[in-house]
Amino acid sequence: MAGRTEIRTLTDPIWVLRGLEGAVLILGGGIAYASLRAYTRTRRASLGLLGIGFVLVTVAAALAGVLYEFVTHDLLTAWSVSAAFDGAGFGVILYSIVRPVTISAPPPGPVDENPPSP
After folding, report:
1. Which domain holds residue 80?
2. Among 22, 42, 89, 111, who pairs with 56 as Cys (CB 3.0-4.6 Å)?
3. pLDDT band at 91 (very low <50, low <70, confident <90, very high)
């Protein structure tokens, strides 16, 4: 009898968790898409790494939901896997921000000292 009460108290707030994870999927997916799109335009490695980090964070939310709903139905396992992906994603995001940037030399060839005026 005590087990049924415990399950009942977890069932009601699970909808809040589902809604929050859905928001993370939408917002994280949007940020990942924008970052990766910016990377394709600029070819700046930091933007590519930023996009990969947000992909990992977004996958964490999706994976937590899939694990809980369809595989284990164990919230601790789902949160643990999600936290591992979140940690990896945030680590990549942090690296994309603090990594040293190497400045490349201009391409070899003649330099036009008098560029055409607009």
Report:
1. 2-98
2. 89
3. very high
The answer, yes or no, to whether residue 56 has pLDDT greater than 50, is yes
3-state secondary structure of 49: helix
How far CA 14 is from CA of 8, 24, 43, 63, 103, in Å, comes to 10, 15, 41, 16, 49
Q: Are 51 and 35 in contact (CB under 8 A)?
A: yes
Closest CA to 17 of 90, 69, 57: 69
Instruction: Assess if residue 117 is contained within a domain.
Output: no
| Tally of domains within the chain | 1
Residue 21 or 110, more confident: 21
Tell me the pTM: 0.72
Nearest to 22 by CA among 78, 51, 65: 65
23 inside domain? yes
For residues 57 and 89, the answer to whether their CB atoms sit within 8 Å is: yes
